[in-house]
Known about the structure:
This protein is α/β, with parallel strands linked by helices and 232 residues long. It contains seven helices and ten strands. Strands 6-7-8-3-9-10 form a six-stranded mixed sheet, with helices on both faces. 38% of the residues are buried.
Amino acid sequence: MITIENLQKSFTIHHLNQTFPALENLTLHVQEGGFLGIVGKSGSGKSTILKSIYRTYEPQAGSIWYDSAAFGEIDLLTASLRDIIYLRKHEIGYVSQFLNVMPRTTALELVMQSLYGVGAKEEEALEKAKSALRHFDIDEKLWNSYPNNFSGGEKLRLNIACAVVKEPRLLLLDEPTASLDHASKIKVRESIEKLKARGTTLIGIFHDLEFMEGLCDQVFTMTKLSEERTAI
Length: 232
């Protein structure tokens, strides 16, 4: 599903006139329907991998080959912006620790909009959105509220609901359980297991190793660039 070859990404701090490497000659392969977990210390480049796949970041070198249902094998680093937007809408989901939303959009509307993007009609989108919000324990009193004032945990659960409700072919998870209590983590795990059973390919970053146990097919350990990186 995903093959990353010789990926290189660095960041330049212009006012310091310094460049810092984040990824150097990184190579990875994820089978269709598999789940790759990425672990490592803060600053080792874990999130940079996901953001490069999603094209939030643009690496300086390398390739990310993705087996798309719409376009066949496509290099996400050289694909047109139009194709990237299409893939984000229809095939590739991304869950971050933060929720960025349009103003004056309710929690229910946000989840429904995710479903509209993949062609769901209003009635279907409404029922699936309500089901997703219930699953992730978003209080029904909050469904028609704006998420700006939600707690960190509520925002994260809403963010996950928006991503998983579309049942994407590829789902990128950047610390999906970062600020959740144990009960909420179980809900996230249940959703991930269902998606995996339906054939979704997943790549996730976790600090909670207990949460990952028995969930990932492969674990890739990120370290400092001066150290060896290993896949087990």
